[in-house]
Write a structure and sequence with these properties.
With about 650 residues, the chain is mainly beta. The chain has one domain (about 1-645): Maltoporin, Chain A (Beta Barrel), CATH 2.40.170. This is Outer membrane protein.
Length: about 650
Amino acid sequence: MVMGLIAVLLFNPACGDVGWLPFIVAIMTSIVSRRAISALKPLAISLAVASLFPASAFAADTGTAEAVVLTAGRQAQAAKDVLADNVVITADEIAKSGASSLVDLLQKQRGVEVTHNGGPGTTSSVFIRGTSNAQNVVLVDGVRIGSSTTGGATWSTIPLSQIERIEIVYGPLSSLYGADAIGGVIQVFTKKGSSAITPTASVGAGTYGLRKADAGISGALDSRFSFALNVAHEEADGFSASTPAAGAFTYNPDKDGYKLDSVSGRLAYEWSKGQELGLNLLQSRLKAQFDAGPGYDDRTQQDLQTLAVYSKNKLADNWTVKTQYAQAKDKSFTDASYGKSQINTEQDTFNIQSDLMFGKDVLQLMYENREEKVETTTVGLNGKRTTDSFAASYVMKSGAHLASASVRYDDSSVYGSNTTGSIAYGYRINDALRVNASYGTSFRAPTYNELYYPGFGIASNKPEKGKNAEVGIYYELGDTQLSAVYYQNKLTDLLVSTNVCPVQQDTHPFGCAYNVEKATLSGLTIGGSTKFGDLSLRGSLDIQDPKDDTTGKQLARRAKQHGNIAAEYTIAKAKVGVETTFSDKRFDDAANKKVLGGYSLLNLYATYDIAPSWSVIGRWNNVLDKDYQLAKNYNSMGSNVYVGLNYGFK
């Protein structure tokens, strides 16, 4: 069925001359295994609903605005010129998603898998192309976030209600962003002002006692000054995070709810033509319950704070310099049956970036200083480290040829120096069809826990290393977009946690983290979207082999196949949609003994414009009430509904 939908996308009348496409379809079809297709049980329902739309809708519409991507090259680039594989999630997609959290929204994107220990508000992880949560970089308005102790972003503290746009860039980007960008970079952009002063507001309610409300105002006072301010609150009664199978030391039958309060703001002032000063901020506080044993109301409070002050200066017609100071704080207080703890991490970053244009080409030079600070109640874990970085990149565009090259040198006060690089080339066969090839290196810095946690960390641990090669083919004409990317990422010196420590047994009798593993993350990612008049279709399929080369086992919580299919139809002032997310089985442990069954989720949604600036949204998630787990012995949401009222949103 997946190949059937892709064939429909490929042979859309808007695609023009597609004599090469049957060959690609044949290759893709031969790769898909029966196990992948068996995971798509609700897909027949999705396509059956789509088939109800009238045939008169199947007329191509090619009037789309050119998309721009900022994250892939640390500069604004037309999406059709970006050599790295990427996905952009727009404000419209976020508004109608009805997603309970950012993690739920990311789960619907190609190349992305997620896990969580219960419902919204609980610990979550995001995997890009089979990499771990700590092997990806997350940015908020250009500010790097994440915990220096555990590694990776604290996803539950990022409020979806504050986000206007999301960019996902796949592949190694350490040569642009430094440590941890092995699998990719996710950047979220908070809401901003641009033209007339516009108020916005929304309220909503749903299953599990979910309540949401947010309000904001944005705009420009004149051609020089723009602003945005948004506040939001959401809470839910929730459900038990764990199942009885979790055991007596974890299971608690109480409901695990949460409250999330947030505020974001953006200011920009152009004091002279091409000279801009700005400020971005985000602050959120999550109070959540979780399960750590019976008879105790286990709770956590997590705070995320980001602040950036920048100056963007056009020094010549072809020369722009941006200077930024940014600060990100990740704070966590836990009150659980096993005791109380406090973990505060902070990242302070100073960055100066120079962009020189030579015709259509851009030379970028950059210096960055980043200081990480850790303060905890755990003796021996506190400290700070600094990293000084120098980078250069060149992006070329000449006729049918596209190319980019970048190199970066990172020097850490703790784990030494690392040099990474990337090179990519693309060739336009015609206006719609492009082929790409790239190679890049990356690394992940050991976390404070892996270095210093008493009885677990080893101070001599080295960074993990990655070498990634990929080839891709992209097709874009009007509203039709297609892509197929094959990648192979070889990782060495992986840091693993073990109960028996072979290197320092005298000081680590109960296990440690140390460099030992090798892994190969290879896969094929297929994506497509098209529009037939009022009918929109999109789909993706990931066929991957995330393998531990040391043991020959499948990496924990990664599936061999996963994907998404969606259809949306516009009827006058209403939009109705159907979507399904599916995944093959996974293993919850490195030994591949604990199986997490495959799952398929069917969702329905509808939006209706009831008046100018007013709209309602209704969403029914997990329609078939699938009982599934993303982490062993932890519940996920069953069938649930959400209804919301929006004002001022486009």
